[in-house]
Amino acid sequence: MKKPARYVLYVIIILICIAAIVIGVYAQFFKREVDNELGEGPIDGNGTSNTISYAEIKENFKDLFTNEFSIGNFDDSNIHKIDNTKPLVYTAVELDEESDGKYDMNISIPLININGIKYNATTQSIFVEKINEIRKNSNLFTRCDINYTAYINNDILSVAIMASIKEGDSAQRIIVQTYNCNLKTGKEVTVNDILKERGLEEKIVSNRINTVVKKAAEDAKSMQSTGYNVYERDVESSMYEISEINNFIQGPQGELYIIFAYGNDAFTSEMDIIEI
Known about the structure:
Layout: H1 3-38, H2 54-62, E1 68-70, E2 89-99, E3 103-112, H3 119-136, E4 142-153, E5 156-167, E6 173-182, H4 191-198, H5 202-224, E7 248-250, E8 256-261, E9 271-275
Parallel strand pairs: 1-4, 3-4
Antiparallel strand pairs: 2-3, 4-5, 5-6, 7-8, 8-9
């Protein structure tokens, strides 16, 4: 092969290699943008999103509720406990109770074993009172399951309780209540506290929330058009603003779950779960 032809071939090969690199880089960033728009995560500090389907995120979240507490490497010797013989979080109410024609309950409710924790009173008012109400109600057969999960990540205790309630012919209702506390400072933790710690921009997380909720609302409308009764989300509601979010936990690997459990205020099992 003559030298000029050989040089031309070399140039072509080099150009092809450069084009391949450019396409690869573009594809990587394009895929990242698409993943973020689809609400499939989690997101890291650079806004990168791993490809986990939204259905998997929901199932992974539900699978956390095993009625166990993971303390990790945290030293709780300086925590002022209510009962020094018990762990920081333990099962305080445990029931497997059935009354023929009236109810079937499988209950595990935790107690946060720290002096002055207000969440214990919330647990009492929401979940324990619901159990007592079911026991007294002889008109409707009720199925009630209550489970919890609890973790410590970076000195932050996260506790979540999930209740699934089906009363008579009414729609199944799922209620989720959470509590997050910095065990070193004794102060409750906000979503913004965690986002700042992880170096995540509020705008990125807001975009993720809006994308997930709008997609869920569109899917619900599609189902409604086929005759299904669905929960209608108000996508313009202020509840989706970062400053209004108070239902969230950190999972076993420190992943942040933001929870919109619509059954907290309505008879529905619908939830939107955003994993960050």
